Amino acid sequence: MTKRILHVVTNVGHYDDPEHPTGLWLSELAHAWEVFEERGFEQTIVSPHGGASPLEPRSLKFPNYDKAAKAWHNDPARMALLENTLSPDQVDAADYDAIYYTGGHAVMYDFPDSEGLQRISRDMWEQGKIVSSVCHGYCGLLNVRLSDGSLLVDGKHVTGFAWQEEVLARVDKLVPYNAEDEMKKRGALYEKAKIPFVSYAVTDGRLVTGQNPGSAKETAQKVAALL
């Protein structure tokens, strides 16, 4: 049976201040997509509301705009996938083997409280599937409760974009909350690399998380290894 991956992207295009655009961090999708494509996995994209997913402008500039991101950006068929994402009510968790939450600061706004995404993640987890995220994508895991009322991340080893990285990226004054702190408040055992912005990914059973944009490939490889 061909394995099927469900990628999650944002619908948000700016911070609280509309003068500061944000969106999907393209390389985090492109790198993972390549890893899964090489293995012949089927891939689908969902977003909290369905429809278009705007791109984070900073992800289209050097050094983030790498070969994989550029190839995606210059491929009309690939870009069309981001114009027509599924909404959660069009997704049956039983159809997928893994869910992968992409990042970009935009996801801090629309991932945490999406009941549709929470349902999919809960159902997949309880069906023995893989739940994964990279960078700010872990905001999508903050409020996922299992059928017994417990938080999915409680007691689990996770990583995601560090507060130190927010400060270094000079967006600590723009973000709506401290994602690292919020994860710890939910009982997650947060960890990070010793050096900011290097690739770092953590596997805890069927939960796989990557720290930052540079971790997308490693995160996807760990998901693929589990599959």
Describe this structure in words.
By secondary structure, the chain is α/β, with parallel strands linked by helices. It has one domain (4-226): Class I glutamine amidotransferase (GATase) domain (Rossmann fold). Helices cover 30% and strands 14% of the residues. The protein is built from eight helices and eight strands; from the N terminus they run βαβααβααββααβββα. It has helices spanning 26-38, 67-73, 76-83, 107-110, 115-126, 163-168, 179-185, 216-226; strands spanning 4-8, 42-46, 98-101, 130-134, 157-158, 189-190, 201-204, 207-210. The protein has a six-stranded mixed beta sheet with strand order 2-1-3-4-8-7. α1 (26-38) packs across α2 (67-73). The longest helix has 13 residues, at 26-38. The termini are close together.
Topology:
Blueprint: E1 4-8, H1 26-38, E2 42-46, H2 67-73, H3 76-83, E3 98-101, H4 107-110, H5 115-126, E4 130-134, E5 157-158, H6 163-168, H7 179-185, E6 189-190, E7 201-204, E8 207-210, H8 216-226
Parallel strand pairs: 1-2, 1-3, 3-4, 4-8, 5-6
Antiparallel strand pairs: 7-8
